[in-house]
Specification:
Layout: E1 13-16, E2 20-25, H1 41-52, E3 62-63, E4 72-78, H2 81-92, E5 97-104, E6 112-122, E7 127-131, E8 139-151, E9 154-161, H3 168-177, E10 200-208, E11 215-219
Parallel strand pairs: 4-10
Antiparallel strand pairs: 1-2, 2-4, 3-4, 5-9, 5-10, 6-7, 6-8, 8-9, 10-11
Length: about 240
């Protein structure tokens, strides 16, 4: 039996133990299955675990959080139901510290700040609208951001979402700052990127291990594509 062409453990797999599987997700890959029927990250992870540990049946893979399909970066998967339950609780209670990097076409003003909006999801169009004031159907959404500097002709932002809403960073940067993410035509950028990704990368996750209670920090290298090359200077 040949190993499935899934991941090189030195590159896409950032960490693995008995309870966690931490992946650097490439842009374009779903985290969990949807109506498209495309193979998601969770299915690839199950196949990897079945092969690695020679499991005769299905391997357990639990999804505690998601990244949008065109977004790259670190995703934490659970290998046990105990880990999944505790991870779900930590994400729900905002006990996971998330750091994203984003490229924008212009420098936001001010260059550092805190954004608060009430987000309303349109499931038909798969878009989210941000309201600056309280909205009866909206979910309060908050993030902190700072400009790290210029990266070629773009600007590199570090974003730390406090809440975890669908499309939150994308719509808040676009609506709140007038700086849509490079390639994100859904939220106002003028042109797509060649690989149809957007320049948003889940750079780092920090949380307490759900079983051992050890403080963990996982950092995902940037994708090896042209639009991220200038940002590598900020490593």
């Amino acid at each position: 039996m040949n190993r499935p062409n899934l991941w090189s453990e030195q590159k896409e797999i950032l960490f693995e133990d008995n309870h966690l599987l931490i992946i650097n997700k490439p842009a374009g890959l779903l985290v969990q299955g949807d109506a498209t029927g495309d193979e998601p990250l969770s299915a690839k992870a199950e196949e990897y675990l079945r092969f690695k540990y020679k499991k005769p049946g299905a391997a357990f893979v639990g999804v505690a959080h998601r990244l949008d399909r065109p977004v790259s970066g670190v995703v934490a998967l659970a290998k046990t139901s105990k880990a999944l339950s505790r991870l779900n609780e930590m994400f729900r209670d905002n006990k996971v510290h998330k750091t994203y990097w984003a490229l924008t076409g212009k420098c936001p003003e001010p260059t550092t700040g805190h954004l608060t909006h009430w987000l309303v999801k349109d499931p038909i169009r798969n878009t989210t609208k941000a309201y600056p004031e309280r909205h009866s159907q909206g979910l309060k959404s908050e993030l902190d951001y700072q400009v790290l500097g210029q990266a070629g002709s773009r600007w590199l932002l570090q974003v730390n979402p406090i809440t975890g809403r669908p499309h939150q960073i994308r719509v808040q940067l676009s609506s709140g700052l007038g700086t849509p993410i490079v390639g994100d035509v859904k939220y106002g950028f003028l042109a797509p990127l060649p690989d149809v990704s957007i320049a948003l990368h889940a750079r780092q996750l920090e949380f307490q291990h759900p079983v051992t209670k050890e403080e963990m920090c996982f950092r995902a290298p940037l994708p090896e594509v042209a639009h991220w090359q200038a940002a590598e200077a900020y490593y």
